[in-house]
Each structure stands twice: as structure tokens, then as C-alpha cells.
Amino acid sequence: MVATKKIPPTPSAYAYQLLIKHLLPTPLIVAPDQEIVYRDSVRYTYAEFGRRVARLANAMAHIGVKPGDTVAVMDWDSHRYLECFFAIPMMGAVLHTINIRLTPEQLIYTINHAEDDVILVNKEFLPLLESVKDRFETVKKIVLISDDAPEAETRLAIETEYEALLAGQNDTCAFPDFDEDSIATTFYTTGTTGLPKGVFFSHRQLVLHTYAIMANYSAFKSHANLTSADVYMPITPMFHVHAWGVPYLMTLIGAKQVYPGRYEPELLLRLHAREKVTFSHCVPTILHMLLTSPAAKDADLAGWKVIIGGAALSKGLAQAALARGINVYAGYGMSETCPVLTVANLKPHMLDWDVARQLGVRVRTGLPVPNAYVEVVDPEGNPLPHDGVSTGEVVVRTPWLTQGYLKDPDKSEQLWAGGWLHTGDIGFFDSQGYLQVTDRLKDVIKTGGEWVSSLELEDIISQHPAVSEAAVIGVPDEKWGETPMALVVPKPAYTQTLTEEELKGFYQRFVDEGIIPKYGIPKRILIVDAIAKTSVGKLNKRELRKHYS
Questions:
Q1: Active-site position among 446, 450, 499, 546
Q2: pTM
Q3: Pairing relationship of beta strands 141-145 and 421-429 according to DSSP bridges
Q4: Amino acid 130: pLDDT
Q5: Which is catalytic among the residues 227, 451, 499, 502?
Q6: Which of 97, 235, 378, 537 is the most exposed place for a label (fewest CB within 10 A)?
Q7: Catalytic residue among 161, 336, 375, 456
Q8: Could you confirm whether 336 is annotated as catalytic?
Q9: Catalytic residue at 133?
Q10: Distance (Å, whole) CA 89 – CA 204
């Protein structure tokens, strides 16, 4: 680094650290009476939220949690989880958000690897936790979480119940100052082969990410600006990259928040209508689930701003959402990036375009958010021009990227080779500055020496009027090395009539228009009832390749 002149320290000056605790005072001052809602069960104000955060921190200290300890949470999306997002890191402990859909082997690995001291567990997940209790290495206490009862039958040694623990605690807490680079959160990503990999984020990273997405969502004139007047309902699990960091933002600006617990289409749509929800985010499969639910038939979805991430937003799904009045658009990030890197905001001159013309921008991977440097590079690491053609690996730098994988220096060095975080995605930038991810490096199909994008083939087939869901993978081929294969779930009205020949004919139209090469037409197209998904609702291409290869 370059040597520069530094501000001389004043002994009495307050060394202001970027800590999560500094996000909380603003909403308690400007919106103390605003509501936080949990399903049909709980409704309280921000003022009460602040008191409960203090009680939770005092309660954790009461049962022996110290700064540097790790507290794990296994719960549905709830007001309790939001309280944990603040109280646990604010007291100097580490919040471990456990993926509740892990296998028992993955679960015990993450618990022991993260060195969890205390686990807060919803009673619905007691059987899962019981299955690994004899293999705990560091767990000292377990706190029960329940919507309806202070006790539950279990073989686990329960210390106490969440609400009972909070009940006897003080409403105020003098949250300490400490180094902003202290670890605030950790969780495990299961998107690659092998054991789950632990990522971790500091207070500084989470605070900077919060302000960056606030600037991106709120400051620029666009089609979907967010303000404190919005009503927020996450439909991304809170264990998955802090629900994309948005609960921190919506708390900071004092917006009404609605937490739905377990994702049930009828409940989600009822909460949307009753609480007048205006903003959500989810993976494509969740949006598809909502749009195809019988409960959505007569629902008024107009004006609902929905960001799609975790997987590509296809034109077909975007068209279906826009047809219902949903203001849908894409975002991009990954577990290692906290996660937001880009968002497909429409630029001001695009706002007057018709919906059909806007569609191509809404499904783009997006524009880099403030303080995010995003590039596509060739195999030697050289940046490629933003010409809409030159394709390479997507690499990034921001102040909020994980600095590595927990206790795994070798994979951490691979992640950060050359001083840029390597996403494992390939893509290009167009002349307007929009990134377009064309595939994962591991998912791109190499046939006859040429690369074919599985995402592009999925995007094309999603536009067929009979197609509900689709996945495209590469499968071994004796002649070409690999060829595309598609799996298609038809819409209910077409389950008996949709054929492989019709779908291949649909692809042929895009070959004739020069959009894809002739070898891009999948050699096989299977009509199926369902497509395998990961624990966070993405297409599970690893499992699909394993099964169909």
C-alpha cells in the first residue's frame, strides 16, 4: 500500500467502530411505533423490539454466553430470528445461522466446526438435533423456541425456553465497543462438492453492506425504489446469507416488517394482502410456487416489488410475474459475498420503455452496487472489454466479501487468487454496464469443443407457453464429449399433450434466428413431474448430473 499522511489521534476522541449496534438507534428514534409482525401470532412495535433485543443479550449473558462465544439458531423466519440478528453479535458473540435443511451428517459437521456453545432451536427441529446430540463437541446449552408451548418432549437437555428466558431480563443493555473487524456471523455454504464450507462476516462488513444496498435500492431513480413507507416480507430463509442482508436495511430505515415463518403459499399470499406487503425477495422456485398456487388465482399482486436472486431469472418467469403486476427484477450475489453485488435497476431513460423492452434489462444480472468492483477476466486474469460479447470469469472486490473459508486456508487462497474473489461464474458486461452471468463454470456445457450456456437454454425453453419449470445440464456423449439435456415440468393443462418433439421444434426457432447454435438443441428433453432442488430452493444441477449421467 502507498504511504500516506494519517490524522493524528486525539486521546479523548471516540474511536467509532462500524458495529451492528449502531444500526439500531435510528429506527428506535424515527419509527418507535412501526410494526414488526410474525405470521398470525405476534405483532409489536420497534420500541418493543429494542427492549427485546436488550433482554435477549442479557439473557444470553445470564446463561453464560461471553464475547467470542458462538450462538447457533435453528428457526423459521421470525421476529425471534431478527432479534438474534442484532442481540447476539451486538454483545460480541458470533451468530451461527444453521441451515435447517441440512442432512444430519452436514448438521453435526457445521455445529462442531463452528464450535457452537449454545443452540436456540425451534421445537419442530428437535428430532433433527436429537439425531446428532451424542456427537456434540462444544455445545453446552440448548434453548427451546416454540410458538405455542414452553415445553416439548425431547431427549435433549433443554436449558430453558426462549420467552421464559427473556421474561426476567432487564429492558436495557450497555452493548460494548470492540473492534469492528470482529466476527459477527457465520454460516455454511453447501453449493459445492465435499463438506460444507464456513464463511464469516465482520461487523464492519455487515454495516457497509447495509449502507451499500440502501444507496442502491433507495438513492437512484429507478423502477423500484425502497423507502421507510414500504412493507417488507422476506421469502429468503434467514439462515441463508442473513436473508440477503435486507433485514438489517429494513430495520435501519424503520420499515414495517412481516415474517412468515414456514413458507406456505396460502399464508404468504394472505400476509401479503392483509399487511399490504410491497417488497420481497426470493429465489425463482419460490416465485414460481406462489404464481402457480391456487391461492394466487384471485390475489391482487399489483405493485409488489420482488427481487429474484440465487439463480437466474428467466424471461418466462419474469413475463408471468409482470403479467400479474409484480414489479420483478434480478439481483446477484453468493454466500461468500454477503451477498449483494449487482441489481438489475432500470436506468432513468429506460423507465418509459414498454414492458416488453424492459424485460431484457430486468432479467440481466445487474449493475454493480456502490463500492462493488465487478469485472470479467480472461484465464490470465486480464479484464475484458464491456462490449456485450467478451466472456470470462466474474471476479469481485468489495469491503464486505468474506476473507476466506473458516479453518480452510487452502480453499481461502483459491477463492482469493490474485487479490480478487473468484465467483466461479462466467459472464460478460454490455455497453450499458450491466453484467450478464451466462453460467456457472461447473455448469457450462462443452460440446464438440464449444461452450453452450445452460442458463441460456433454460431461459429459451421457459418462454414456451406450456413450460412451468426447466433445467438444462450437460451429459456425457461418446461423439461430442458432452451434450445438453433438458428436464421440463409442464403446466398442469399440458401434462398429457406436451412432447419432446414440440420442445425441440421451439428450440429450432432460436437456431434459425441465430441466437443459439444447432448443437445447442438438447439431444434429450425429458417431461418430468418435478426437478430436484437444493436446500435453499435452487435447481440442484449437481444431483441432476449425478442421476442422469
A1: 446
A2: 0.88
A3: unpaired
A4: 97
A5: 451
A6: 378
A7: 336
A8: yes
A9: no
A10: 12
pLDDT tens column, 147-166: 998 888 999 999 999 999 99
Give the CA dihedral 404, 409, 412, 418, nearest 10 degrees.
120
- Expressed in percent and rounded to 5, the helix, strand and coil fractions of the chain are 35, 25, 40
Which CATH number among 3.30.70.1290, 3.40.50.12780, 3.40.605.10, 3.10.450.540 corresponds to the domain 201-440? 3.40.50.12780
Given the C-alpha cell 399482486, which residue does it identify?
301
- Give me the chain's average pLDDT, please: 95
Helices 315-323, 355-362: inter-axial angle, 10-degree rounding = 130
What average pLDDT does this structure show over 323-339? 97
Contacts of 290 (CB under 8 A, 6+ apart): 265, 268, 269, 296
Burial 24-58 (b: 16+ CB within 10 A, else e): beebbeebeebbbbbbeeeeeebebbbbbbbbbbb
Residue 191 has pLDDT above 80, yes or no: no
Confidence of residue 192 (pLDDT cuts 50, 70, 90): very low
Residue 343's DSSP bridge partners are 331, 367
State the Cα–Cα distance between residues 325 and 341, nearest whole angstrom. Answer: 26
The CATH architecture to which 445-548 belongs is 2-Layer Sandwich (3.30)
Render pLDDT for 73-86 as a digit per residue (tens, 0 to 9).
Answer: 999 999 999 999 99
For the segment 450-500, what is each residue's pLDDT rounded down to a tens digit? 778 899 999 999 999 999 999 999 999 887 788 999 999 999 999 999 999
Closest CA to 260 of 283, 290, 237: 237
**Looking at 185, 189, 438, 534, which residue is catalytic?**
189
- The domain locations on the chain are 45-178, 201-440, 445-548
From CA 320, how far away is CA 450, in angstroms rounded? Answer: 32
- pLDDT for residue 268 is more than 80: yes
CA–CA separation, 264 and 258 (whole Å): 14
Angle 284-292/265-275 helices, nearest 10 degrees? 80
Half-sphere exposure of 325 (CA within 13 A, CB side): 10
Helix (H, G, I), strand (E, B) or coil at 394: strand
- Based on its alpha-carbon atoms, the radius of gyration of the chain, rounded to whole angstroms, reads 24
Q: Give yes or no on whether 45-178 and 201-440 have one common fold.
A: yes
The mean-pLDDT minimum among 53-62, 223-232, 282-291, 535-544 falls in: 535-544
CATH match of 45-178 with 3.90.640.90: no
Mean pLDDT of 414-433: 96
* Residues facing 143 on adjacent strands: 120, 160
